[in-house]
TrEMBL record:
The keyword Plastid does not apply. This is PCI domain-containing protein. It holds the Pfam family eIF-3c_N. GO terms for molecular function: RNA binding; translation initiation factor activity; translation initiation factor binding. Keywords: Coiled coil, Cytoplasm, Initiation factor, Protein biosynthesis. It comes from Paramecium tetraurelia. Residues 588-779 form the PCI domain. One of its GO terms (cellular component) is eukaryotic translation initiation factor 3 complex. PROSITE patterns: PCI. Residues 827-847 have a biased composition (Basic residues). GO terms for biological process: translational initiation. Residues 1-26, 165-212, 826-847 are annotated as: Disordered.
């Protein structure tokens, strides 16, 4: 035995002896300690290396860097399917590391950097590149595009901070080490600041520390391999290209002064003499469309405007006209799909300044010069100036609509564009006042329609919010465009202008918008009267598809207006036509994606003008349930009743065919369960199920609507109760019915009188005090005879069908043939015989 184990046993024996334990127990304990130590030595030999203790922070960071490395490889290969999986995996890992990030003071910069890189990849991916992708890759790209935008909104502050102070990571290992050493000597820092500097300034997967801590042996192997240093020439070329990209990104954000400095790296001297200004403006007009001089020309025009708007307003108006045209060309070249918001706002501001200088300052338009070689008159007129303003307005409107159709509705940019829409509407109101003064009737109708199109879908909730902001002096939007709170009167005045001066299609559109707004603002009777008197389906069906879509939207809003007032029958009439068609409801309302020529998808109707499809289905099925369930319960054994809602019956048949219906969860499940309780006359359970539907909150002032619908449920439940149990009672008290369904005595008697009058139930009311309803039941023999005749007819029809089926399969041997079919065969034979007979010869006729 070695001395090591002898010493171990002696020491243990010495320790155990004072306690008075036996010597046998001491020997057993010494043997156990020896076996434990030997097993530890064996285990240490199997490890073949020294164990490394890693903190939780280092472990989490190493895992994140491994995933980011895979993401960078997939970005280069444009493998969006795997990239999407890695993106989700990275976010899950970030959620697990929240405690570590809280201790360190926030998300690491290398994570924010990779989020920016993914977003840049998605945004810069062109339509031509997307065409080259496969089907799965294209779907993954669209999913990634939506998720990265939505996720980056949650860390917008971190991304903005990173963009303002980016950290370069394209340095080699030697440069990084030299930089860390220099900073350490200068600051005299300890190891902790050095670690922080490494975390902030390094994003390289080749870091020795993280390579050794990886669980993958192939990753640890890279630590022992020699790495080639990057070529200096390639590194310089990459730096030059990166500087160009940075300059281009910054130039799209800042003003024309800095943009010109970045693009040209020089400054120019501007003379404000009359001759030099005239020559320069002629040169700018002649060189319009040349991309090289575009930024320089805009820079010069901005300087001219700033100078002449204080000294010579007429010259400032001339330069503004040239500047707006240059800005439109520049915006089209920068963003081919739609103008970015900054370019759009610059064009809008210059157009508004141009209008105010002419209208408020009284600048005479006849003395303006165009500075064009091709213009022989070289001067403006009042008509030409107003036409220019209208063209600029239409350009702004078209580009804003394109932006609404292409921008995702959940982004901050979409909300900012909505404020731009109200500013544009304010400009249209100013132009409308100018056109009325000039008595330009055609353009008055045009501008009235444009303003109507921008505000007709606004409901009372938005107006109430704007009024609250105005009282607090926080409203940025002028309330004049909404009629100072009375939007219905404002829209009526606009429609009157269109009815006077507009063409046929514009009048139909304006009437549909008017009906839409009236129904939205709780004026259903007036909206319904205008709709019936002025518009017919035959007239609309012969017009363009867009007008038919607006017709469908007006119908839906009329249905909502009737539903809010508790008019169930009218609600069903308005919505049944749309929901009974085979097409998708979104297509009928023009709320689906439409493919463009470039391969992109966009909304035909902007999101802020759309109607929720689930709310339409909820209102329709609720109205159909209240009408169809009493109709079905009137007589369960007769199929001759008129079907009110075929779609609701299909819904009930689908659930009835299921062997097991679980607890209701969604809207359709709750409607079906409520219909079953309504058929029993149990209105309390029916109403409890209907209240669980979450779509109530999408209806304006839904609490008042619920009270009205609750009364309708009680009335229909009373009908179903009388239909179901009319053969179970000889008489029943009216007071009992009133208390059971919580209705007034007048309403209860009115419902009973109507049912008796239309023959729905056979009963009479006691003439003495009219407190009892006496049922006049049919004889049981008459009911059995009627049921027997119905069954016999069905059996005969089934027998005929079986015989025809057998005839088609094996012939008519041994089976009775239908007489009608035999007669038809004999008639056909006679016809064939008469056709085959030869006509008499001409000679026989002469004889």
């Amino acid at each position: 035995m070695s001395k090591f184990f002898q010493e171990e046993s002696n020491s243990e024996g010495e320790d155990e002896a004072p306690k008075g334990g036996p010597e046998v127990d001491a020997g057993i304990q010494s043997l156990a300690t020896r076996t434990r130590i030997i097993q530890g030595l064996i285990d240490s030999d199997d490890d073949q290396g020294q164990r490394v203790i890693v903190t939780e922070k280092e472990k989490r960071y190493a895992r994140l860097r491994e995933i980011i490395k895979d993401i960078k490889i997939k970005i280069k290969n444009q493998d969006f399917v795997t990239l999407l999986d890695k993106f989700e995996e990275l976010n899950k890992e970030v959620e697990k590391s929240t405690k570590v990030f809280e201790k360190e003071g926030g998300l690491p910069r290398f994570y924010i950097r990779i989020m920016c890189q993914i977003e840049v990849l998605v945004l810069q991916f062109t339509a031509e590149q997307k065409k080259k992708l496969g089907v799965n890759n294209s779907k993954a790209y669209n999913t990634l595009k939506q998720r990265i935008k939505k996720y980056n909104l949650t860390i917008k502050d971190k991304i903005d901070e990173f963009i303002n102070n980016p950290v370069t990571t394209d340095q080699s290992d030697d440069e990084r080490k030299k930089k860390v050493r220099a900073e350490k000597k200068a600051a005299g820092s300890d190891s902790e600041p050095e670690a922080q500097q490494k975390e902030e300034s390094s994003d390289s997967e080749d870091d020795d520390k993280y390579l050794l801590q990886s669980n993958d042996p192939m990753v640890r192997r890279r630590y022992w391999l020699k790495k080639k240093l990057p070529d200096k020439k390639d590194q310089k070329n990459e730096e030059i290209q990166q500087e160009k990209v940075n300059k281009k990104v910054i130039a799209d954000i800042i003003d024309y002064d800095v943009k010109f400095d970045i693009a040209q790296n020089k400054e120019i001297h501007i003379d404000y003499d009359a001759d030099s200004v005239k020559k320069k403006l002629e040169q700018i007009v002649s060189s319009r469309g040349v991309q090289k001089n575009q930024v320089e020309n805009l820079y010069v025009c901005e300087k001219y405007i700033q100078h002449f708007i204080k000294e010579n307003l007429q010259r400032a108006v001339e330069i503004l006209l040239i500047t707006i045209s240059l800005q439109i060309d520049q915006a089209k070249s920068e963003a081919p799909l739609y103008f970015n918001r900054q370019s759009w706002l610059q064009i809008y501001q210059n157009t508004f300044i141009l209008f105010s200088l002419h209208q408020d300052k009284g600048v005479k338009v006849e003395k303006l010069h165009t500075y064009s070689k091709y213009d022989q008159e070289n001067s403006f007129s009042e008509f030409r100036f107003i036409s220019t303003l209208l063209v600029n307005f239409q350009t702004l409107e078209v580009e804003l609509n394109k932006a609404f159709q292409n921008i995702d509705y959940y982004t901050q940019e979409y909300a900012e564009r909505l404020s731009d829409l109200y500013q544009l509407t304010h400009l249209s109101q100013k132009l409308l006042e100018l056109l009325k003064i000039k008595n330009d009737t055609a353009n008055v109708a045009l501008m009235s329609f444009k303003q109507l199109e921008a505000i007709y879908y606004i409901g009372p909730a938005v107006i109430q919010k704007l009024l609250e902001l105005q009282t607090n002096k926080q409203a940025a939007t002028p309330l004049q465009i909404f009629g100072n709170g009375d939007i219905s009167s404002k829209i009526q005045s606009l429609v009157e202008n269109i009815l006077k001066y507009g063409d046929k299609e514009t009048i139909v559109k304006a009437t549909l918008y008017w009906v839409y707004n009236l129904a939205l603002n709780g004026k259903y009777e007036q909206a319904h009267e205008i709709f019936i008197s002025n518009i017919s389906y035959e007239q609309v069906s012969q017009m363009k598809t867009l007008i038919q879509l607006y017709y469908n939207r007006a119908l839906v809003q009329l249905g909502f207006g009737a539903f809010r007032q508790g008019l169930i029958n009218e609600t069903h009439i308005h919505l049944a036509d749309l929901l009974s068609r085979d097409k998708v409801l979104k297509d009928l309302l023009s709320q689906n994606y439409m493919k463009q020529v470039e391969g992109e998808y966009r909304y035909t109707v902007p999101y802020h003008m759309s109607i929720n499809v689930e709310t339409i289905e909820f209102v329709y099925f609720l109205a159909a349930m209240l009408l169809e369930v009493p109709n079905i319960n009137q007589d369960l054994f007769e199929d001759s009743h008129k079907i009110i809602s075929r779609k609701f019956r299909q819904l009930c048949q689908y659930y009835d065919s299921q062997t097991f219906n679980p607890q209701p969860e969604n809207m359709r499940d709750l409607i079906y369960a409520a219909s079953k309780e309504l058929a029993k006359g149990n209105w309390t359970k029916c109403w409890d199920l209907l209240k669980q539907i979450q779509l109530w909150t999408r209806i304006p002032s839904y609490e008042q609507v619920q009270q009205q619908i609750k009364v309708r449920v009680q009335e229909q439940a009373l009908k179903c109760y009388l239909y179901t149990f009319k053969n179970a009672f000889s008489n029943i008290s009216v007071d009992h019915l009133r208390e059971r369904f919580q209705l007034s005595e007048q309403v209860t008697k009115t419902i009973i009188y109507k049912m008796i009058y239309y023959g729905e139930i056979k009963a009479i009311i006691d003439n003495q005090d009219q407190s009892f309803l006496i049922f006049v039941n049919d004889d049981i023999s008459n009911q059995t005879k009627r049921l027997a005749s119905v069954i016999i007819e069905k059996l005969n029809q089934q027998c005929k069908n079986n015989e025809k089926l057998m005839d088609s399969k094996i012939g008519s041997f041994g089976i009775v043939v239908d007489k009608e079919s035999v007669d038809q065969v004999n008639k056909q034979k006679k016809k064939n015989v008469t056709k085959n007979k030869k006509p008499p010869n001409a000679t026989t006729k002469r004889k």
